[in-house]
């Protein structure tokens, strides 16, 4: 298994943000974590790249136990994009993307042809080649989001972890990024992402996991997992998935009204 999580529990400020999560994601899959605000999606991803320490349970990435793997070694296996905005003043797009190669360089060694090729391809894949010399502090939210994705691509990790990778992107770039992630997965990369846009998640993810109150309450093929009952109970919407043209899509009627739903703000 490329990502293997067992009994994971993470507490933040004394409260469980993630509880008893078991999850397996094989190589070559796009796996989407979905769930309402505050359900633990970001926290689960953060545990994978050691930004939070679980109180119990374990996570392995590409066969390496996260808890016992140094940051640098982990960065050679796992690339992550986060919701935290990187606007390091004065850095050019190309320099930020090149940071993705840091874990592959020896302590005193300079970037070689392979590093330059990885950066060039990442810039091209995210349609940033023409913006390579721009100052990142002057980019729009969507352009910056593509820079962060490009940096993770340049890392060429076995596992890509992306927190809301498309939330700032216009429709064309949303589809372009999700298509790109699908192609990377077909090439053997494991892609684990979070998404609020359920329609895009059911279209582009091979499997989905639903978090609710920190627990993984369902996992499997989009059409199997997101049935009408779960969509109502967890997301508070009247909706269903349909299969059309070989892909799942989501048909939403609207929100359940307050009386007929237990759904409440947990964020
Ligand atoms: N730094 C923090 N300190 C204390 N509690 C936190 C902190 N960050 C998150 N939490 C809490 O942990 C729980 C899970 O939060 P998390 O950000 O993982 O959810 P999420 O599913 O990613 O939410 P969203 O969809 O809103 O991004 C929430 O109850 C949240 O309020």
From TrEMBL:
<dbReference type="InterPro" id="IPR003439">
    <property type="entry name" value="ABC_transporter-like_ATP-bd"/>
</dbReference>
<dbReference type="InterPro" id="IPR003593">
    <property type="entry name" value="AAA+_ATPase"/>
</dbReference>
<dbReference type="InterPro" id="IPR027417">
    <property type="entry name" value="P-loop_NTPase"/>
</dbReference>
<protein>
    <submittedName>
        <fullName>ABC transporter ATP-binding protein</fullName>
    </submittedName>
</protein>
<feature type="domain" description="ABC transporter">
    <location>
        <begin position="3"/>
        <end position="238"/>
    </location>
</feature>
<dbReference type="InterPro" id="IPR017871">
    <property type="entry name" value="ABC_transporter-like_CS"/>
</dbReference>
<keyword id="KW-0067">ATP-binding</keyword>
<keyword id="KW-0547">Nucleotide-binding</keyword>
<dbReference type="Pfam" id="PF00005">
    <property type="entry name" value="ABC_tran"/>
</dbReference>
<dbReference type="GO" id="GO:0005524">
    <property type="term" value="F:ATP binding"/>
</dbReference>
<keyword id="KW-0813">Transport</keyword>
<dbReference type="GO" id="GO:0016887">
    <property type="term" value="F:ATP hydrolysis activity"/>
</dbReference>
């Amino acid at each position: 298994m490329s990502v293997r999580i067992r009994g994971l529990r993470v507490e933040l400020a004394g409260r469980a943000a993630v509880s008893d999560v078991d999850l397996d994601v094989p190589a070559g899959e796009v796996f989407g974590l979905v769930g309402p605000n505050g359900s633990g999606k970001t926290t689960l991803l953060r545990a994978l790249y050691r930004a939070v320490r679980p109180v119990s349970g374990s996570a392995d990435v590409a066969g390496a136990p996260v808890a016992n793997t140094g940051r640098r070694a982990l960065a050679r296996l796992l690339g992550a994009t986060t919701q935290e905005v990187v606007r390091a003043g004065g850095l050019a797009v190309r320099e930020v993307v090149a940071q993705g190669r840091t874990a592959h360089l020896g302590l005193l060694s300079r970037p070689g042809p392979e590093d330059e090729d990885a950066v060039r391809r990442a810039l091209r894949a995210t349609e940033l080649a023409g913006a390579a010399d721009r100052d990142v502090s002057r980019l729009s939210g969507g352009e910056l989001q593509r820079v962060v994705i490009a940096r993770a691509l340049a890392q060429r990790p076995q596992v890509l972890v992306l927190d809301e990778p498309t939330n700032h992107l216009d429709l064309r770039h949303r589809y372009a990024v999700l298509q790109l992630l699908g192609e990377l997965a077909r090439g053997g990369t494991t892609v684990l992402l979070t998404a609020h846009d359920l329609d895009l998640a059911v279209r582009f993810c091979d499997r989905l996991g639903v978090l609710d109150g920190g627990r993984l309450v369902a996992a499997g093929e989009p059409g199997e997992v997101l049935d009408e009952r779960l969509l109502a109970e967890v997301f508070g919407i009247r909706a269903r998935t349909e299969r059309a043209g070989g892909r799942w899509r989501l048909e939403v009627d609207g929100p359940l009204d307050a009386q007929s739903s237990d759904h409440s703000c947990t964020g």
